[in-house]
Design a protein that fits this description.
The protein is an alpha/beta fold. It has helices at residues 32-38, 40-46, 71-78, 98-110, 114-127, 132-141, 151-161, 168-176, 198-222, 234-246, 266-272, 280-300, 302-305, 322-325; strands spanning 7-13, 19-23, 26-30, 64-67, 186-187, 193-194.
Length: 326
């Protein structure tokens, strides 16, 4: 195992460590206690006789375990394990990177470190939520800069790996926004590429078209000739609503076919009603109430829209089906 091509990790090599893990051409010397405490797989492996470093005396023998993981993944996961009774956050970060989160889920799943998996899945669920209000919040507050659209490819695969289906609809929806580059997959730091399965890639092709259909439906339902309750100028507001609907035919208005069906309509309404002919209640209806209602309907059927089975724990229950929205 110890050849000239194997090198000690510059970060995770502790001279007083009592376990050596070797993967690829990198070896880590760490403490076995935390790994045994949190991983039944490591506990079982270390209950069996293991080879040790050839230059050590028997009383100081340090077991050497060969693994078959990415060295980067293993490094991210091992950073969590320091002497103590509980697992620390990844690298002490309040906002871990995608690579850290994904590595901890993969390593945690493989070695049955359930707490490590759940902690990082919980983090992903905040970024890829299953309820509409949380989704809007993520759009307002933005995601950590280390999470790009392409990382949604990895999130889909992680969700399938650990069987957390509630992550998949919004992650697939984000994959639909990648465009043609989706066929190139997610490029990792080591030069490898991670791809969606052919089935999920097909769902993205269909899902992107359906997102455009959802936007078109919202566009035409936005300005139906029903004024707000308590409207102060019904005739005037109906006339403005008709004008707003008619002018949607302008080919320059991307809101009609935009795949971002959750987009705000405020700029369009303000631009077309510069003289503020709409009464205050009708303006609020178009700014908040009506788009929220229409977008919630789409959200309720998002799993079906993405070609997935409808989920019992998906957001609020919808009274409509995807077929009703086409």
């Amino acid at each position: 195992m110890h050849t000239s091509t194997v090198k000690r990790d510059s970060e995770l090599w502790f001279d007083d460590g009592n376990l050596i893990l070797v993967t690829g051409n990198v070896e880590f010397k760490v403490y076995r206690g935390p790994l045994i405490a949190h991983s039944p797989i490591f506990k079982d492996m270390l209950s069996l006789p293991q080879p040790s470093e050839p230059d050590q005396s028997s009383e100081n023998a340090c077991p050497v375990i060969p693994l078959h993981d990415s060295a980067d993944d293993l490094r991210h996961a091992l950073r969590v394990f320091v002497p103590g009774n509980s697992l620390r956050s990844v690298a002490g970060a309040t906002e871990p990177t995608y690579d850290e989160v994904a590595a901890c889920i993969r390593i945690g799943h493989k070695y049955q470190i359930d707490e490590l998996v759940q902690r990082n899945i919980t983090f992903l669920q905040k970024l890829y939520p299953s309820d509409y209000n949380s989704f809007l919040a993520t759009r307002r507050n933005h995601r950590p800069p280390s999470f790009t659209r392409a990382h949604a490819i990895g999130v889909v695969n992680l969700a399938r790996l650990v069987n957390v289906p509630s992550l998949i609809p919004i992650a697939l929806m984000e994959c639909c926004t990648i465009g043609a580059n989706i066929v190139h997959g997610l490029l990792h730091a080591d030069g490898t590429r991670e791809m969606l399965t052919p089935e999920d890639l097909g769902r993205c092709f269909v899902g992107r078209a359906r997102m455009g259909q959802a936007s078109a439906r919202i566009a035409h339902q936005m300005f139906r000739q029903t004024v707000a309750r308590g409207c102060r100028r019904p005739a005037c507001c109906q006339r403005v609503l008709l004008r707003l609907l008619t002018e949607l035919g302008d080919g320059r208005i991307e809101l009609v076919s935009n795949i971002d069906w959750w987009a705000s309509w405020t700029e369009y309404v303000d631009g077309k009603d510069e003289d503020r002919e709409l009464c205050g209640r009708c303006y609020r209806m178009l700014d908040e109430d009506r788009p929220m209602q229409l977008q919630r309907e789409v959200w309720g059927v998002l799993p079906t829209m993405m070609g997935l089975p409808q989920m019992e724990d998906w957001g609020e229950k919808s009274k409509v089906r995807w077929a009703d929205l086409q």
